[in-house]
Amino acid sequence: MFRQYFGISSLLALCIPAVVSANSLDNTYRLGAGDRVQISVYGEQELSIDELYISSSGKFDYPYLGQIVAVDKTPEQLRKEISNGLKQGYLISPKVRVSVTGFRSVYVNGEVKKPGGYEYQPGLTVDKAIALAGGFTDRASRNKVFITKADSADSDDTKIKVRLSAKISPGDILVIEESFF
């Protein structure tokens, strides 16, 4: 009996953090160009969109509501906007869900084996992004790692030196410089 209870409670403990992180993602993650979302309206297939790519304009056309701006909104804010719009003469009590199905890229440049863009994953850190890029080259400096945040990519003087454990966001650019020794 104790083993069954312990096994079930351990399983529940593993499941609960996933729910919390999904909810916190909805409350903090801001959509941007390059993200992919799914919009589901319960019982209304013609109002549901399986996969919507957010373009550089940040807008998309939605049935009955016209153009909606998605960029810089959380999935929850977008859900409320669509739900409120559908209540205005279209549906009595719409049940809308907005899910992020794909994130925009992070970019890893410099002294890594496979520089390029890689899809962001929640919880991504500098060292994990470097691992996605194949790891350091032999010439890489492990303490000369810089990041340019996506929201400040317009200026060259926004490079910030970071530790390998630092968290990164979608659209960020990592540069690993060469070691001279």
Automatic annotation (TrEMBL):
Keywords: Signal. Gene3D superfamilies: Outer membrane lipoprotein wza domain like, wza like domain. Pfam families: Poly_export, SLBB. Residues 1-22 form the signal peptide. Residues 106-152 form the Soluble ligand binding domain. It comes from the Bacteria. One of its GO terms (molecular function) is polysaccharide transmembrane transporter activity. Residues 26-101 form the Polysaccharide export protein N-terminal domain. The keyword Nucleotide-binding does not apply. The keyword Ribosomal protein does not apply. This is Polysaccharide export protein. It comes from Vibrio agarilyticus.
